[in-house]
């Protein structure tokens, strides 16, 4: 379980998150929704350990983030990230982009790419494949170490409707606790847990 307790955050003198309290169940699929400027990306950055909150506590399975000595090791072992911009390294092949973040074998990497429908592209470079294929490669990079938690910030922001649906389907199939910040209400399903923000507050 991921617990968020009395979380607030300021940028300079402006408060952008106000006393957020949430519990996210293990293995659940969660969508953070809200208009631009509502605080979605800031909340996601904080709960995924990329940003330190001004106030409040984040607890991963009884481990308080503030008590973790080596946060980079914790991230590598526990967390996968998917962003709106794939951040693949241009001079590395798709396979090499994934290999650089894992000790998994080539067979394991290719098996994951096959699961995502892009095994045949493993030797291609990011600028040689489509936007939807690049985002699937980014999902493979997030999945390869089998993290317990996956965070995705507007992962379909640059994709057409067909590829957006593919990406949401892939995220739902992950064996992890998934939290997605998104504007894409079209792809919400009744079983999804919706976390709505307005002006930095839960609503």
Structural class: alpha/beta
Counting H and I runs of at least 4 residues, what is the number of helices?
6
Order of helices and strands: EEEHEEHEHHHEHEEE
Percent strand equals: 25-35%
Tell me what you see in this structure:
With 203 residues, the protein is α/β, with parallel strands linked by helices. The chain contains six helices and ten strands; from the N terminus they run βββαββαβαααβαβββ. The chain has helices at residues 40-47, 71-78, 94-99, 106-115, 131-143, 161-172, and strands at residues 2-11, 14-24, 29-33, 55-60, 63-64, 79-83, 149-153, 177-181, 193-198, 201-202. A six-stranded mixed β-sheet has the order 6-7-8-3-9-10. A four-stranded antiparallel β-sheet has the order 2-1-4-5, with helices on one face. A hairpin with a 2-residue loop joins strand 4 and strand 5 (63-64). Helix 5 runs parallel beside helix 6. The longest helix has 13 residues, at 131-143. The relative contact order is 0.21. The mean pLDDT is 91.
Question: How are the elements arranged and paired?
Answer:
Elements: E1 2-11, E2 14-24, E3 29-33, H1 40-47, E4 55-60, E5 63-64, H2 71-78, E6 79-83, H3 94-99, H4 106-115, H5 131-143, E7 149-153, H6 161-172, E8 177-181, E9 193-198, E10 201-202
Parallel strand pairs: 3-8, 3-9, 6-7, 7-8
Antiparallel strand pairs: 1-2, 1-4, 4-5, 9-10
